[in-house]
Amino acid sequence: MQADEIGLLLKQERGQFLEFISAFEYRRSTGQKKREEELARELVRVLSGMANADGGTVLVGVEPDKSVTGVPHSGDELQTLLQAPQNLLRPQLSPACEKIHLGNLQLLKFEVASSMEIHRIAGGRSYYRVAAETPALPAEQIHSLKEAKRNVFYERQQTLNATWYDLDLDLVTQFVNKLHPGQDPQQVLNQTYHLLDNSRAIPCPNMAALLLFAKDPSRWHPRAGIDFVKYDGNERQHGASLNVIKRMRFEAPLVRLIDEAVGRIKEQIRERTILHDLFFRERLEYPTFAWQEALVNAVAHRDYSLAGAPVEVWMFDDHISVRSPGLPPPPVTLEQLRLQRSIHFSRNPLIVRVLADLGFLREMGEGVPRIYQEMETYGLHPPELSAEGFVFTVTLRNAPVYDEATLLWLNQFANRQVNMRQRRLLAYAYCHGKTFSTTEYERIAEVDRDTAYRDIRLMMKNGIVAPLKPKSRSYRIVEKL
Q1: Cα–Cα distance between 200 and 459 in angstroms, integer?
Q2: What is the H or E stretch that residue 311 is in?
Q3: Mean pLDDT of residues grouped by 10 in the chain (481 residues)?
Q4: Cα-flanking dihedrals φ and ψ of residue 324, to 5°?
Q5: Residues 449, 451, 455, 461, Cα dihedral to 10°
Q6: Which homologous superfamily is 2-143 in?
Q7: Of the CATH numbers 3.30.565.10, 3.10.129.10, 3.40.190.10, 1.10.10.10, which one belongs to the domain with range 409-477?
Q8: Mutual orientation of helices 349-357 and 288-301 as an angle, nearest 10°?
Q9: Predicted TM-score (pTM) of this structure
Q10: C-alpha–C-alpha distance, residues 403 and 242, integer Å
Q11: Could you state, in order of their start, the residue ranges of all structural domains in the chain?
Q12: What would the 3-class secondary structure string for 338-371 be?
């Protein structure tokens, strides 16, 4: 059974919830075991980063290429590793640890839950897990993160009278068989996902488990679903001018809710006939990834303690808005999201881990930047991010920034490492004699002179632009077509 479990982990890639750590160091192609103090500090850096974020699994004895080399340490050295989270972290951390034997190799598997505290290495820094990296936290973010963690209690609450039998056990079994085949469902939900309290005669689910798997989620939360409203025109009307033309409500356990809502909402996304490569083709009015990612993020990261409001999707003739109860939690800010910074904090880390393992959430902190990229690639305006009252809204507009001729012309640069700023510049140049200056780039891309210079040098290196004259600050487009 242990070998099967390790095999499943090795099929996965390093990421938000999984890390491999080698017990060896390699110098001049010769491998020797790491000193236990060095390995212990590496281990607690990753474990504390995961505990400060969303939790996860650390497997010690595996190389970056996922080859299993084992932990050669024994006796007192091994005890140093096992006790490192208590001895080297402040406050202490107590992850679940398991010794696993594969043939004559020994591995250590650590499971850590998202913590309500910020853990730091004694006398050192605090770390935070984002995707497959564990960077140190800047001092100003530590305070924001402490404040945010004070408000993530909701999904961990034990609901009065809720028991194991309030969960849809078929749904739980399907989930466990998909991700942890052959393992006991109660054990998986308890030890891996921290969704059960096993201290009583009948295991008791917390609120995260009920939202994810309950037979009747509305019994435990009145508005945990998704409301879809389609309006006639570009604005909401009320009273005698009420312009609602379709309304749908989706209520289901979260592991099913997203698929059910996406399946029905995509039927409302219109196709448009466009001229592309001299042929008329059908194209959806919004990039599929963009609106679905906005919806998934709303379900995963909403504030479920705001029990009177659901996630809402409002569709108009010229735009679609995904509305999520709860403002971005510190240290995430609207400004950082608009600047497309890779930043991640989960208000609901237990829910997020389940949805991520099911494939609904992928690279943490990259969802919003990807929405920007998809809208840009489609030739549409950037998403509009706003916060009003207690609602965070992502709005996507279907009016194109470029006409079809400009889009077709831009496609020749699609595979040549062109970022969004450079793409805007190329579209501008297309409409202005296919030339531009450094000053024009600074104005259009809204960047300083140094950034403009670096971007232009990169385009020159990739054969996209060339100076009009030697040492000139004006450039021409080098066309492939």
Answers
A1: 64
A2: strand 311-315
A3: 79 92 85 92 96 94 93 92 95 93 92 92 91 88 82 84 96 95 93 89 94 96 97 94 95 97 94 52 81 96 94 97 92 86 84 94 80 86 93 94 77 76 85 89 86 90 89 84 52
A4: -120, 125
A5: 90
A6: Schlafen, AAA domain (3.30.950.30)
A7: 1.10.10.10
A8: 140
A9: 0.78
A10: 34
A11: 2-143, 155-218, 226-346+357-397, 409-477
A12: HCCCCCCCCCCHHHHHHHHHCCCCCCCCCHHHHH
Q: What is the CA radius of gyration of the chain?
A: 26
Here the tokens at position 66 are 């996922």
Q: How is 423-434 classified by DSSP, letter by letter? A: HHHHHHHHTTTT
| Three-class secondary structure of residue 229 per DSSP | strand
Q: How far apart are CA 259 and CA 246, in angstroms?
A: 19
How far is 222 from 168, CA to CA, in rounded Å?
A: 18
The tokens describing 328, both together, are 């971005």
The DSSP 8-state label assigned to residue 137 in this structure reads P
Tokens of 14: 């390093």
Strand order of the β-sheet with 435-437 is 435-437, 474-477, 465-467
Specify whether the CB–CB gap between 105 and 96 falls below 8 A: no
Instruction: Please state, in angstroms and rounded to a whole number, the distance separating the CA atoms of residues 344 and 54.
Output: 10
Structure tokens at 348: 């609901």
Cis before residue 331, ω within 30 degrees of 0?
yes
> Cα dihedral angle (451, 456, 457, 462), rounded to 10 degrees?
130
Burial degree of 144 (CB within 10 A; 0-12, 13-18, 19+): middle
The domain 226-346+357-397 having CATH identifier 3.30.565.60: the answer here is: yes
Distances (CA, A) of 67 to 7, 103, 105: 11, 14, 12
As given in the structure block, the two tokens for residue 211 are 């939202």
Kindly report the length of the chain. Answer: 481
Q: Tokens 């008791």 belong to which residue?
A: 204
Q: Which two tokens stand for residue 284?
A: 């959806």
Fold agreement (226-346+357-397, 409-477): no
